Amino acid sequence: MHLSDIIGKLNYRITSGSEYKWNCYPSAKLLDFESEYATISVVFNSDKQMVYEITTAPKNDKHRPYRWIDPDYIDFYIKESNYRGIDTKLAWDDVQYIDLETEEDILKKTEAIFNGENFDTRIEVAIELDDDTWLELAKQAHKHDITINKMVEKVLQHCIDNHTVNGFST
Fold this sequence. Notes:
The chain has 5 helices and 10 strands, in the order αβββββαβββαααββ. With 170 residues, it is an alpha+beta fold. α4 (131-143) crosses α5 (148-161).
């Protein structure tokens, strides 16, 4: 993700910036954005303008904070957090982050929260399917007169609902 992908979505409302003091991200800087609804922090590479991490903290209790970390740097972040004795799950006090997996998901949620808009709170997950599975899902979706995305959602929900560990439902 490039820094320009997020700055425009936050209406260029940069409130502060500084060096990022951790070592897990090379050449890192931190930018903070603020609206009446949220504060957003973006850690990025100052040379390449690539985003390492986005945290979105709503100013109300309606939503929990969201976070996205570039998958290429998660292990470095976790290693440094452990070295510093910091719980990677906690945003503050007893409030945990909701970690997001896709760039698109964090961008949509961040923009909506920043502007005080409603948004889909479900978490998007990237799924890779082989051609035969994709074709079968398309056929089943057509048969049930629903979109392929809805069909994938139904299949995943069925798997979650029927998941067992060691013979016991979870």
